[in-house]
Amino acid sequence: MQQQQQRNNNNNNNNNATTSSTQNNKASSQNRTGAISKNVSSHNAQQQQSPAQNENLENIALLVDNMRFVIEPSLFTAHPNTMLGTMFGTGMQFTHTNDRGEYEVAEGISHTVFRAILDYYKNGVIKCPPTVSVTELKEACDYLLIPFDATTVRCQNLRGLLHELSNEGAKQQFEVFLESLVLPLMVQSAQRGDRECHVVVLLDDDVVEWDEEFPPQMGEEYCQTINSTAMHRFFKYIENRDVAKQVMKDRGLKKIRCGVEGYPTHKEKVRKRPGGRPEVIYNYVQRPFIHMSWEKEEAKSRHVDFQCVKSKSVTNLAEATADPPLELDASGNPIPPPQPVGEIVYDQEDLDGGAAAGGGNFGMGRILNDLVEAAIINNDNNDVPVPP
User: Second label for 319, Cα 20 to 30 Å away, from 283, 291, 343, 374?
Assistant: First the structure.
């Protein structure tokens, strides 16, 4: 009996152990299932977020001059001050693609120039191709808002590169001259009621001494002067004059002239002309000048208003071709028009009568006599009659 009871107890213990191991296996399997489901859900979430996260990492296609360029947008967004950096750095809400998903940009720029400009976004330096002029590259950089200077451009044609750099420097330098030196003189002219200004640029050591009794006779008293050796040197180059003209034109001025002219500085000598009238000879130096105008109604200012007189001529074509109106007397008969004074009218009877009287030329002789008498009568009035 004891052995049988002990066997039953061992069986119960085995059953309990089996049950507990089964339960443990179920729990572990449930934990594994939960972990697997969590991993699957997290992977699905990552897959759902990946398109949005990788949208900015995808390459974009640009179409320039019918040439396709595939570029990472991060190259453009690294330079936000450029036009392409602004376009693709603001969420691309202002850009639109064509039917093939390409962005058409840089209109008017060749694909060769655009390929060279892409080097700026990659390494910060543009190498100008030999087949591209420096002027064309400069215009493309200005359009795309890319800085064009000695640090960003490398070019084999140094003359062309330095020419463009000089134009940019001359533009900035003349802006300073215009604001600090020229504009105050223009304001003075405007306050006098003038609508144009003529400025002569002298050297710092130029001295102007005019004789008050005998000033120059060519209108120099209306000129204004600037003593600036730096500005005098600036206008020595004709390219700088062209840049100055363009700057003043962009500022709204008109009738712009830049050049070099003679300017009187001091009196050299005085000589007597025939009749005792003195003549003063001045010393002239060649100095640059600029002339500009801000007149709006320049065409009307040169218009001369003549007195309007009523014209007696017939301007209507219908009235000119129509018969003149007839004046009738009380009986209804037409009144002949009055004859001008000094005008003699002959009819056919006078000519025929003279010939019938046997005189032959009697009629013509009578006409000549009448003409002579009419000329004598009208001589005081200087009115010579015209024969019909």
Answer: 343
Q: Are strands 60-64 and 153-154 parallel, antiparallel or unpaired?
A: unpaired
Q: Which residue has the tokens 């947008």?
A: 73
Enter the DSSP assignment of 42: H
d(CA 352, CA 369): 17
DSSP assignment of 158-215, as one string?
A: HHHHHHHHHHHHHHHHHHHHIIIIIHHHHHHHHHTT-SEEEEEEE-TT---B--SSS-
Task: Specify which residues 127 forms β-bridges with.
Answer: 154
Which stretches within 54-153 are classed as H helix?
73-77, 83-89, 111-123, 134-144
Grouping H, G, I as helix, E, B as strand and the rest as coil, residue 128 is: coil
- The set of residues, in sequence order, having a beta carbon less than 8 Å from that of 43 and lying 6+ positions away, is none
In this structure, the strands spanning 103-104 and 60-64 are: parallel
pTM above 0.70, yes or no: no
Kindly list the distances between the CA atom of residue 180 and the CA atoms of 184, 196, 213, 229, 256, in Å, as whole numbers in the listed order: 7, 18, 34, 14, 19
Which of 200, 215, 210, 197 is CA-nearest to residue 261?
A: 200
The whole-angstrom separation of Cα 381 and Cα 383 is: 5
Tokens of 298: 């320049």
Tokens standing for 207? 């001295």
Question: pLDDT of 98-149, one tens digit each?
Answer: 888 888 888 889 999 999 999 999 999 999 999 999 999 999 999 999 999 9
Assigned token pair, 275: 């009749």
Tokens found for residue 183: 């504009």
The per-residue pLDDT for 42 is: 47
